[in-house]
Specification:
It is a single chain. This protein is mainly β. A 5-stranded mixed barrel has the order 1-2-3-5-4. It has one domain: OB fold (Dihydrolipoamide Acetyltransferase, E2P) (Beta Barrel), CATH 2.40.50. It has 2 helices and 5 strands.
């Protein structure tokens, strides 16, 4: 993602199998509860590649990839910084 330091940034947008979500609760054991943009509450797993590098907190906006075989669960694919989440709200992608 390019960041020119001013104005609008090109943010990662969801693929066809991903959806925006907000972290609502930390469950421990690398799991969180998320409220997805499609209205579903899911238990999301923080994958190993993100566990030590990216800290996820309640209120963060993330991209999740719902499981095909179990719709109430998902994997976190991406976490947005606060400024990026604000930009998504301004552009109308999330509430």
């Amino acid at each position: 993602m390019s960041d020119d330091g001013e104005g609008r940034r090109d943010l990662r947008m969801p693929d066809e199998d991903e959806v925006f979500a907000e972290v609502t609760n930390m469950l421990g054991a690398n799991r969180v509860t998320v409220r997805c943009a499609d209205g579903t509450e899911r238990t999301a797993r923080i994958p190993g590649r993100m566990q030590k590098r990216i800290w996820i907190r309640e209120g963060d906006i993330v991209l999740v990839e719902p499981w095909d075989w179990q719709d109430e669960k998902a994997d976190i694919a991406w976490r947005y910084e606060k400024s990026e989440a604000d930009q998504l709200r301004e552009e109308g992608h999330i509430q």
